[in-house]
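Try it yourself: sequence plus manganese (II) ion, in.
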Amino acid sequence: MALQVRRLAFGLGAELTGVDLSKPISSDDRAAIQKAWLEHQVIVFPGQDISPEQQIRFGRLFGELDDHKAVPFYRHPEYPEIYLITNHKIGGKTSETKDTGRLWHSDHSFTTRPTMATMLYCREIPAVGGNTMFANMYMAFDTLSDTMKSVLRKLEAVHSMIHYTDHYLKDRNPEQIAHMRKINPPVAQPVVRIHPETGREALFVNEMMTSHFVGMTVEESHGLLKFLFDHSVRPEFTYRHAWKVNDLLMWDNRCTLHMAPADYTHEEPRHMHRITVLGTPSGRQLEAA
Ligand code: OGA
Ligand code: MN
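Structure, out:
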């Protein structure tokens, strides 16, 4: 059966059926997936029954996989390529990744090799909620005024694990946080990122990782950043995914943001296997590691 693409929202997102990710993928299918992904930014593959090896094999079709060195404590015990987003107990304690992604972000924008594609695979989901939301950052940029666009094209912004952990991951293990800060010094990213494959401009700041503009203070940056954070996620730029077990989602971190609302109870399991495909280098490190 040929691949079928069905759009899911005005902002972004499409469902792709007619492909079985547990089997080797033909080069034609790979090309069709790539095309749909660049066009719709978020692809949903429903009803995929795949093993960790099969997920890894699929991920490798698109590039080199991250072994999650920047966040080493949350990896699958047997597969470093798989990062566990789960509220299961691990070693007798509830996993620290249970509240992953509660603010809007782009994966690993605090590194100089931010994630290109994230592939998140749903193993268990609560009866209600546990959704993930996405926003189209091409649209966010395209809908700004020409004057604002030209101001933003000149700016870089600081993305850091320090900002991230100060305002968001406060309740995690302090030694592990200190280690992750040390190995991830602050990075300057362009505020407007040129997508390396489509050539389109996308806004590249996010409320989770971005603290201020390079050359400005936090206070000076605050007003404009707050406007950009709010503008980026206007409802018409978004898609909200209600997961079913065996959905695999693949999103493009170069032109989207995502977040996981706290719209469910941890009394019920939510268990995801994440794979991330490394992108081309972006940004520059501001201090030595
Ligand atoms: C991620 C992430 C959100 C979720 O996988 O990078 O932010 O819904 N996940 O689990
Ligand atoms: Mn994420």
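One thing you can check immediately is this: The chain has seven helices and 18 strands.
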